[in-house]
Amino acid sequence: MSVPSIGAKANVTTAIAAASQKTGIDFNYLLGQAQVESGLRADARASTSSATGLYQFIEQSWLGVVKEHGEEHGLGWAADSIRRTSSGRYVVADGATRQAILALRNDPETASLMAAEHASDNKDALEASLGRDATGTDLYMAHFLGIGGARKFLRAMDANPGQGAASLFPAAARANRSIFYASDGSQRSLGQIYERFAGKLDKGAAAVGATGSASGTMEAKYQQLVQSLGSDVEVVLGNDAESQDRTWLATIDRLETAGRLKASALPTVNPLRPTPETAKLAYLMLARLGA
Fold it and tell me: What is the DSSP string of 50-69?
């Protein structure tokens, strides 16, 4: 696979940043996904499927997201040309128009916008289903397995992260053996696959200069807990607080336990009884209001 030029990479990054700003989807996630999917190559093509472009949309997925979101981004002509059949398949009557719509997958601005809109749709659906905020890794699971598969995967992982993934997703496992099976042929667990995807996203984003987490999962949660505990983190983890020799899950469990203990040691505050701090805050608020 060829390496994109510095200018091409800058154009792609600018397009991703604009899509992030317009849709509210995290820039680091979109950047990490593009790096993982195409190496930031706008003209990337898969050899085994119709997947094309920066985010490797297959034809049906692309037609679906353009039909849903094209008009709001100046692609009304494309959205109006796409029709969904009773079987759920997206079709375009005119062959030349269909090819023009599919060719937009190679345009960084359009591809980034549609990827962000697709991620936003998946985010809303996952959060409504799971009852919690969706992470970047959750969104990538939806990209990989579809929204229904992602729901099934994440619910099963919440219940038993050590469960074998290939048993639950035999078709996906056959098509993606290196993801579902280790080099020795053993079946990877749901938790292992999830952590590997999180690592791929973060590594992909870091490879192109991102400074934050793309996955929004283990490492990000670890950093938040470290910051909340402050100097106490060395008491919990020892002098090797920055070491990643232990698993993220085990480390986070220890930090969360320490955080709960730290919180339980704080004095109980009666919200109806003013303290010097709350009195000062009230005074400042009244002064600002001119009272």
Answer: S-BTTTTB-HHHHHHHHHHH
Q: Are 242 and 255 in contact (CB under 8 A)?
A: no
- Catalytic, 37? Answer yes
- 179 alpha carbon, distance to own chain's centre: 18
Q: Report the chain's mean pLDDT, rounded to a whole number.
A: 81
* Residue 48 one-letter amino acid: T
pTM for the structure as a whole: 0.70
Residue 145: is it exposed, middle or buried by C-beta count within 10 angstroms (0-12/13-18/19+)?
A: middle
Candidates 37, 117, 195, 219; catalytic one: 37
Cβ atoms < 10 Å from Cβ of 255 = 22
Q: Where are the beta strands (DSSP E) in 173-235?
A: none
- Give the number of other Cβ atoms within 10 Å of residue 95's Cβ: 8
